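Recap from last week: sequence in, structure out.
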Amino acid sequence: MPPSRSLTILARGMSIFIGVLIVAVLHLGQDVFIPLALAAMICFVLAPVVDALERFNVRRIPAVLATTAVTFALIAAFTYLAAAQLLDLAYKLPSYQDNLRSKIVSLHLSSNGPWARVAQTMAELRKELLGEGEPAPAPTRPKAAPLPPLAPEPSPAPAPAPAAAANSGSGLGEFARSAVAVVLGPLGTAMIVAVFIVFMLLKKEDLRNRLIHLAGREHLSLTTRTLQDASSRISSYLLMQLVVNLTYGLPIALGLMLIGVPNALLWGGLTAVLRFIPYLGPWLGALPPVLLSLAVSDSWLVPILTVTLFVVVELISNNVIEPWLYGSSTGLSPVAILVAAVFWTWLWGAVGLLLATPLTVCLVVLGKNVPSLHFLEILLGDEPSLPAPDHYYQRLLAQDEAEATKVLTDYCAQHSRDQALAELLAAAALTADREFEAGTINAETYSSVLARIRVHARLDPDPGDPARSLPTGADVLLIAAEDEGDEVLAIILGEMLRPRLHAEVVSHRVLSHEKARRVVTTGAPVVCLSDTSRQDAPRARYLGRRLRALEHGAYVIAGLWGFEMDDANPAQLAERFAVDQVTTSLFAARDAIRRAVNQAGTLAATVPEPAEPVLVPR
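Predicted structure tokens:
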């Protein structure tokens, strides 16, 4: 194994080991990292408020303390109201049993139906497993002769009172400790988060500068860009999500109140909080009020109205409110959001589910700005997984005609006709030519790919093509130098010249002397040699010298589409290929041909400059 490959494998192994180590540390140290992460996320929301207060000449310390106090006061008020509503609901639940019973009876489930049979089977299996069958009759015994009376046995002594008291005290103590742990655990976490928030807001510039200094002077611009990108994305996401959730929870609360579902404020606040959970949050928030609506009403109208309310508000929120409020996306793909939710929930539980999106945004920002972590942006980001030319070529390789056509159609909808021809079709043809030259694909696959590109290149700009009314003579002769790839590129260039110019393509199968004779017989004022060779392009050079030996009077352009010009002098390169001009760009070749035809005076004056048409691949 080569040493470079061994080093690459070792580096990848170390990267995997470091990644596993980081995950283990985050899991084992969650008691420390969870409050820190919560504080950081809340700071992203509160920092703009603190900055706004400072712009009104409020000093940093009062601004931070006031903002933090108001925030936790609102959280405490919401918690108090939610607890009061839950207690009220607990007292009312027993009174709803009759409504539930009547709805179950109204379903009229047949005793012979499939659901009844399933329920009966499950009940029988439960009896068998738990031994709940009918008890067998006790065996009868013959009566025995009466025994003589015995002395009365002494009654057992009562258990010592101190032991009973100790046992009772132990149970109460255990319950008290559990209750205190349930209450003080979240309260202690909240206190730690509050302390972190205050110090982070007070020292945010100092923390930023320390991170920049830790990254080093050589990464000063990179670290600054990363911090700014992460801060703007997370702040925008959290603030807009907060606004969206409030505009979602308030109509839900008002609607439930009008419908008659008890504790409407509780359910409106619950749905607003649960919407921070990606995808699952709205469903989790809708489930309790829908179930409660079944219990409180003696008819089906209230449950139907409740479900309709959630569906309508969700549709409006997703299709109107969110697109209007979100100025920029988080940069995460939908699949990445789901995977992140599962991963962070596994790592940190319910808190991880709430923090999944902001934490994953940080990972995507790192992948965008740190080259060694670029794979994170590819895996989690919302950028196209494959560039359009690669996607199109890959679908041609897979012989997926439907998806390849869809990629072309989508590209045509967003770009001009010439861009679709040059940046998508021509790029795919050049890639196929390179891979065939390298032996990556065989001749059959190469021909199949080029055949599909040839068909797709016939983009019809307009059924009434003005080029059809042009004289029969060609304005430009496009000559394929050597192989099928050269011919496909010539066809694409010819399509780019339509409908203003009439181009004729000479196939690569035509012999060299016949190509030269065609230039003389057609009398085309412009000739373009199409060659996809990377470096020397011997066939184009040979054709250029052969054409120079003829007295044809045409302006000759060498289109060296795959040629690497480096710093070569264009004039010297044109002299080397014995032509008037050398170009490596289809756009440059198009413009050069138009100028040359104009100078020759053969462009029909009656043909108007066409607007960019709507493209429909054939």
